[in-house]
Amino acid sequence: MVKMVEKLIRKRPVYRGKSINFNVDTILLPNGKKATREYLDHPGAVGVLPFLNPHTIIMVRQYRHPVEEITYEIPAGKLHSNSESPKVCLSRELREETGYTARRIRPLLSYWPSPAFSNEILHLFYAEDLTPGSSAPDEDEFLCAFSVPYKTALQWVFQGKIQDSKTVIALLAYEALHNRKHYTTFGSALFSRRQRHIKNSPWPRPRHAGRQFTKEVMP
Questions:
Q1: 106 has pLDDT over 60
Q2: What's 74's DSSP letter?
Q3: For the segment 172-199, what is each residue's pLDDT rounded down to a tens digit?
Q4: 148-166 residue pLDDT tens
Q5: Per-residue pLDDT tens over the stretch 119-136
Q6: 111 in Cβ contact with 208 (< 8 Å)
Q7: With a threshold of 0.85, does the pTM exceed it?
Q8: Are 105 and 218 in contact (CB under 8 A)?
Q9: Is 187 exposed, middle or buried (0-12, 13-18, 19+ CB in 10 A)?
Q10: Residue 137 class from Cβ within 10 Å (0-12 exposed, 13-18 middle, 19+ buried)?
C-alpha cells in the first residue's frame, strides 16, 4: 500500500482575518522530506435549501467580489467559531437573509468545498414549514431573497445560471435523495450522534466535521 499521510511538524499562522485565517505549515512527507502547505483556516459554514411549499424554494441573489458577478445561491453563512452549533448558525442565517424561520430542518450532507487549500467544511440542510418574518442582513450584505420553482432552480444548474458549489450540490443532493427509488443504494440521510458519517447513507461524513446532528433540528 502506498503511504500518503503527511505529518505536521509546525503550524504557522501568517494572517488573521475577520472571516478566515491563512496558515503556512511545515509537514513531513511520506518519503521523509519536508514541504510546506498553504491553506485557509476556516471555522466552517452552513447552507439551507428552504421550501416555501413542495414545489417552491427561497434563494438569494448577491454580488460576490472575488468572481465579480451576481450569484444565485441558497441562504448560507459562516459559523461564528469552531464551537458554534450548525443548528444555531443555520437558524440565524436563514432568518437574517430571508426573514423566514423553519419548524422542520433536516440534514442533507457535509462536504469539503476545496480540501486542497482550505479546511472549511460546509453542512447542507433542507428546510420545510416556513414562517415569514423580517430579514436583517449584516451591514455589509446587500442581497435579495426571492422565490423560484424548485424544478426551475434545478434547470438553472445545468444551464450554468447557478455556479455556486453549495447551491449546486444541495439541489442535486435533494433531487437524488427524494428520488432514491431510482438509486438502490440510497437510504435515510440522517446524522447519528455516535457515528462519523450519515447513517445509512451513501454520502460519507468528512472527518473533523465538528458537531454532529440529531435526526431532526428544531430552531
A1: yes
A2: -
A3: 999 998 886 544 444 433 433 333 333 4
A4: 999 999 999 999 999 999 9
A5: 999 999 999 999 999 888
A6: no
A7: no
A8: yes
A9: middle
A10: middle
45-199 CATH: 3.90.79.10
Residue 182: its pLDDT value, please? 46
Do 6 and 27 form a contact (C-beta atoms < 8 A)? yes
CA distance 32 to 17: 33
Question: What values do phi and psi take at 210, rounded to 5?
Answer: 80, -145
3-state secondary structure of 95: helix
What does the domain layout of the chain look like in residue ranges?
7-41, 45-199
Q: Which of 139, 141, 175, 216 is catalytic?
A: 139
Handedness of CA 130, 88, 137, 76 (dihedral sign): negative
Rounded to whole angstroms, how far apart are CA atoms 164 and 189? Answer: 22
- Is 139 marked active-site? yes
Residues 27, 36 contacting (CB under 8 angstroms)? yes
Give dist(CA 46, CA 110) in Å, integer: 9
